[in-house]
Amino acid sequence: MKKIQMFSILLLVTCSLILSACDFLPVVTPLTISGYVYYNSKPLENVTIKTSTQKLCTTNSEGYFTFEISKNQVTIYAEKTGFLFEPKSITLNSNNDNVIFTAQPIQELDGVLSLSKINITPSSIVSVSDNFQYVKNGENCLKVKNFYIEINNKKFNCLTSDFYAVKNKSNYILFNDDISIDTNTPFSIKFSLDAYFTSYHYEYVFVEEKTSILEVTQNQTNAILNEQNQIEYSFWGVNASNNKYSYNVTFIFDYFPNI
User: What domains, with CATH codes, occur in the chain?
Assistant: First the structure.
């Protein structure tokens, strides 16, 4: 009898602990998201709304889409052959019935691209002490000591001195070497960079050589011309070894059409 009573007590304690633990489990409330996609102020149908790994839905004849997803936060993209979309992505962490994507047609280019400048934008900077990060004009920044690019097997050193990239702002490196790319020829861009932080009293150096490759495989490029007759190709990167920063690197080319 005592054994049965002891077993019953242990069972009750175990169940109580399990139920208590359930109170601390994160609750995922499904998000309900809807909105519209427009092109030239008109609805655009058959646009795929997706995450980076999952198709969610497509727009109807009114450009309308809606979906429900069991996540606390989701980043969505719009996709349709022949178009690019602004914004490029939207991150949502609550219900939203007014999400808007605007489409622009991809242009087939026939001419030459000439690299004009490179933009580095750190999107998050974390350090051991926020008081001792590198700063530029009073703002947190990433120090980039070395920045090399390789385009179609031609290597270039983009920096002659240390470069300080301010968080969440455009930081341009002007490119003076002459490099031209035929838009009808596939090409690739590879870059590597070394980035640094500071922390308490002395320099704490987090060094990363990040190598990424972007390949353009068709003359119908994956970018559109801006008002300055330029085309931009972008990379996203993250300091994976230390999780200290993430960044965007954008290569900006001037476009010279064949006449």
Answer: 31-105 (2.60.40.10), 111-257 (2.60.40)
